[in-house]
Amino acid sequence: MDGAQFLLGPEGWALVNALPEYRPDDAARLSAELRKAGHSPELVSAALTQQRLRAKARAKFGEHARRMLFTEAGLQQATRLAVAAHHARRFRDAGCERLVDLTSGIGADAMAAAALGLDVTAIDADELTAACLAINLAPFPNARAEHGDSLARDLTGFDGAFADPARRTARGRTFNPADYAPPLDRVLAIREQIPALGVKVAPGIGYEHLPADAHAQWVSVDGDVVEAGLWFGPLAQSPGRSALVISGTGTTAITATSDPTAPVVPLEPAPLGAYLYEPDGAVIRSGAIAAVGEKLLAAPVSNGIAYLTGDDLVQTPLATAFEVLDAMPVKQLAGYLRERQVGALEILKRGMDVRPDEFRKKLKLRGPVSATVILTRLRGRHSAVVVRRLPAEISPHPSTDRSVLAELDRPCYSEIR
Q1: Beta strands in 195-307 (DSSP E)
Q2: Which residues touch 13 (CB under 8 Å, ≥6 apart)?
């Protein structure tokens, strides 16, 4: 258990907020000092756990994490703040005024929506998580937390709804929407009452599970695919599938198809050109490789392989670009690297059953030179492509709604009484 319940009183809240920055090596010493100061073992354990969770939460919430309260499970499933800002903007731009967050967790999406001025009711079925949610929403007079079964609640009066069903069972992560908690079909039924419905689902969801009226968007942050979202009614211009790529420099979106259930239509492979591209994971998951290939004037290097190749350098945040330096059968790679005194090798791969660390050891690299190699199939043949990674293009579009961050920066978390 996270022990967060021990931090809900004045003593616990004051203690956790007085702790220094988390350092693993200091945990034992700090625990002893706090117990010596008269704090109970349970409170000390809870405070130090929260200190660790706040440090971990910086990856999703930045400096806002230092004044929030977390549970292990709540943090694991929480939406990153940059992504929550995009969710909130969808509801605002659709004209929604009263949003119900049906499975709010520790409140990332509720916070972002409240920061944009929506009236937010955030609900969670777990009592402790709901208590943490109340703490995290405390700065927002237009947001409130509730503990209970959101699907049993009267939703009259809300014009927007958002849900992030739990996707873990006692057996681990589940990819079957029927095993979500609550099940996806029960959540989707809400759109009959509230057409402006958004649902966060697993990035690995199959196209066959997508409703025909959904716009499914896969989202990546700094190269990691973090979610897929289903958007209905006024929250999306039309049904379909798309990818949204978020990085420190901006955001870029591309549409794959107007039919969310349509299978991916493969492109005809082409000979290796002067450049090789690796599409972002959100592009691959959404089936937008063909759309990106058209943008890049590029085609796949082989059937069933996501790498694209072409003779024109077209930089885009939707794909990482590499300049092709050389290519050869895999068995010739060791000699090639030895001749060039390559001692440090970055290995990328697709379409080959290779473990990069084990493969690197077998090459017995020695020398001062660094290199990058891509192991893949070129028109069906296992090959090694020596490449140079090219710098990413800077997108002109802002990565986050600045009004969300400005509102979240307000230092008005109330003292717990």
Answers
A1: 197-201, 215-221, 224-231, 240-247, 250-257, 275-279, 299-300
A2: 7, 415, 416
Residues 125 and 240 in one domain: yes
63 located within any domain = no
- Cα–Cα dist 241/228, whole Å: 10
Coil, strand or helix at 202: coil
> Does residue 289 sit in the same domain as residue 344?
yes
Termini Cα distance of the chain: 24
CB contact at 8 A, 258 and 240: yes
Instruction: Give Cα 414 to chain centroid, integer Å.
Output: 30
Contact 239, 213 (CB under 8 A): yes
Does one domain contain both 181 and 306? no
**pLDDT at position 414, please?**
34
Comparing CA positions, the residue from 99, 94, 49, 95 lying closest to residue 72 is 49
Bridge partners (DSSP) listed for residue 375: 349, 384
- The C-alpha atoms of residue 246 and residue 242 are separated, in whole angstroms, by 13
| Domain of 20, in residue numbers | 4-58
CATH of the domain at 192: 3.40.50.150
285 is a domain residue: yes
Pair (257, 210) in one structural domain: yes
Assess whether pLDDT exceeds 90 at residue 407: no
The total number of structural domains that make up the chain: 3
Within a domain: 407: no
347 and 232 in a single domain? The answer is no
Interval 12-64: pLDDT, tens: 999 999 999 999 999 999 999 999 999 999 999 999 999 999 999 999 999 99
Task: Give yes or no: residues 191 and 254 share one domain.
Answer: yes
The confidence score (pLDDT) of residue 173 equals 82
Residue 95 has pLDDT above 80, yes or no: yes
User: What six digits make up the tokens of 46?
Assistant: 């809870």
Is residue 397 scored above 80 in pLDDT?
A: no
Ramachandran category for residue 322: left, alpha or beta (phi over 0 → left; psi -120 to 50 → alpha): beta
Write the DSSP assignment of 11-78 as a string of letters.
HHHHHHHH-----GGGHHHHHHHHHHTT--HHHHHHHHHHHHHHHHHHHHHGGGGGG----HHHHHHP
Mean pLDDT on 403-410? 52
Beta bridge partners of 277: 308, 321
